[in-house]
Design brief:
This protein is an all-beta fold. The protein has 1 helix and 8 strands.
């Protein structure tokens, strides 16, 4: 809008009020520079209109948004910029999983569940850190596959 690239200062009554763009790292604040301050009708009337709030500069974890207004002779009261906190909730954290275990078939055997004729073996991995704040955990935690699929030898039969 009209104030999108507004950068300026105006001296009024011995004090300097600053208007700054979002990329300016040095922002001076006055008594009336946060949105939590009490409503003052002198800040709302034309030509003291504020721009719309900027987009928040962080998607989560705490950011800030700003809005600006032009300080003129008719509107020399209060700050040229307001800041507000936004998206203050924690960022989603996906789960973290560990390394795969060795292939096996549980505590009763190592390797495959059958020496021949078709068995199964399994491996697992642990969750080291659970998903938090809406994060996801879509990792596969267990894998099973066939093993020793070859036919078992036939025993001799004596007649």
């Amino acid at each position: 809008g009209e104030f999108a690239n507004f950068v300026g200062a105006q001296e009024s009554g011995g004090s300097v009020r600053h208007g700054v763009a979002a990329s300016d790292a040095h922002v001076e604040h006055s008594v009336f520079d946060t949105v939590d301050d009490a409503y003052d009708p002198r800040l709302a009337d034309p030509p003291c209109l504020w721009t719309t709030w900027s987009n928040c500069d962080a998607q989560c974890g705490g950011g800030s948004a700003y809005r600006l207004r032009r300080l003129t002779d008719e509107c020399a009261y209060g700050p040229a910029e307001q800041l507000k906190a936004c998206n203050v909730g924690p960022c989603p954290q996906d789960c973290v999983v560990g390394e795969w275990s060795e292939w096996g078939c549980g505590s009763v055997c190592f390797g495959c569940s059958a020496p021949c004729g078709g068995g199964q073996r399994t491996r697992t991995r642990p969750i080291l850190s659970p998903a938090l704040f809406g994060g996801i955990c879509q990792h596969q935690l267990s894998q099973t596959e066939p093993c020793n699929q070859h036919q078992c030898p036939l025993d001799c039969v004596v007649s």
